[in-house]
């Protein structure tokens, strides 16, 4: 057999692998485009970012719990675990934590280790506006899902306004749509449960402060009732707007 008739199986194998990878990339990016359209992204840049990040995979629970060789923030190396007992000690610790940037926030966040209650209190204490300022570029991949898990696990009646404030602040951070598209199934379910709980309790947001109630006279009662109803409608509207941003549609009524 002549040399030109010999089949180069190694070259064929490489060519086949390239073709398979190219096909996988096409399918992956095509799926990302449909996902972006379904989410009704506001800008082309957001659409482009979702397609560009189509090769990234959301973190599994085991990945988040596994010890990391590379810290989230090099500054946080060393034994920085918070040690405290009781509500008073926690309050003192939270007063000391005043992160001014995303990296400082992550450093403090990781110091709470596995305590969801402490992380929940930390988020609510900072508030949505502060979180929006710190993460104006973007929320780290995996961190948004962790926020939603903590808010869902620790949410309690009376915290509605604070939780909605946190959700609203996060929704205004950079590349937010991309972060939502990267949520794992468990994180999406936690997000849906959180909004479901908020929808059930949102009328509490319309309650007037005690000082205002004490000043009520008969002539003002009807006006205050109307105001409360308007506030409740506004709160419900804001909540449904946030549900859209977070890709939660099934619980909308």
SS strand fraction? under 5%
Low-confidence stretches: 70-87, 204-224
Structural class by helix and strand composition: mainly alpha
From the spread of the alpha carbons, the general shape counts as elongated
Question: What is the string of helix and strand elements?
Answer: HHHHHHHHHHHH
Please compute the radius of gyration using only Cα atoms.
24 Å
| Number of β-strand runs | 0
Mean pLDDT: 75
Helix content: 55-70%
* H/I helix tally: 12
Distance between the termini: 75 Å
Sheet with most strands? none
Describe the structure.
With 253 residues, the chain is mainly alpha-helical. Helices cover 65% and strands 0% of the residues. It is built from 12 helices and no strands. Helix 6 packs across helix 8 and helix 7 crosses helix 10 (185-201).
Blueprint of the fold:
Layout: H1 9-38, H2 44-52, H3 61-65, H4 86-96, H5 102-111, H6 116-134, H7 143-154, H8 160-171, H9 176-181, H10 185-201, H11 210-214, H12 218-245
Helix pairs in contact: 1-2, 6-7, 6-8, 7-10
Short recap of the structure:
It contains 12 helices and no strands.
Features:
single chain; 253 residues; mainly alpha; 12 helices; 65% helix
């Amino acid at each position: 057999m002549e040399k030109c008739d010999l089949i180069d199986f190694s070259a064929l194998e490489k060519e086949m692998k390239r073709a398979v990878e190219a096909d996988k990339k096409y399918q992956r990016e095509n799926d990302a485009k449909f996902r972006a359209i379904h989410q009704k992204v506001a800008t082309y840049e957001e659409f482009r970012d979702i397609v560009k990040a189509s090769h990234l995979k959301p973190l599994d629970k085991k990945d988040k719990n596994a010890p990391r060789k590379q810290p989230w923030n090099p500054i946080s190396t060393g034994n920085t675990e918070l040690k405290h007992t009781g509500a008073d000690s926690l309050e003192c610790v939270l007063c000391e934590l005043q992160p001014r940037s995303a990296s400082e926030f992550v450093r403090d966040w990781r110091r709470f280790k596995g305590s969801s209650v402490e992380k929940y209190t930390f988020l609510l204490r900072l508030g949505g506006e502060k979180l929006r300022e710190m993460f104006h570029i973007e929320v780290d991949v995996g961190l948004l899902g962790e926020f939603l898990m903590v808010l869902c696990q620790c949410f309690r009646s009376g915290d509605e306004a604070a939780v909605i404030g946190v959700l609203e602040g996060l929704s205004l951070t950079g590349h937010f749509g991309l972060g939502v598209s990267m949520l794992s199934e468990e994180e999406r379910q936690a997000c849906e449960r959180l909004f479901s709980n908020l929808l059930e309790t949102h009328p509490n947001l319309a309650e007037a402060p005690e000082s205002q109630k004490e000043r009520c006279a008969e002539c003002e009662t009807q006006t205050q009732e109307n105001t409360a109803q308007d506030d409740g409608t506004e709160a419900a509207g804001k909540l449904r707007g946030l549900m859209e941003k977070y890709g939660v549609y099934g619980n909308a009524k």
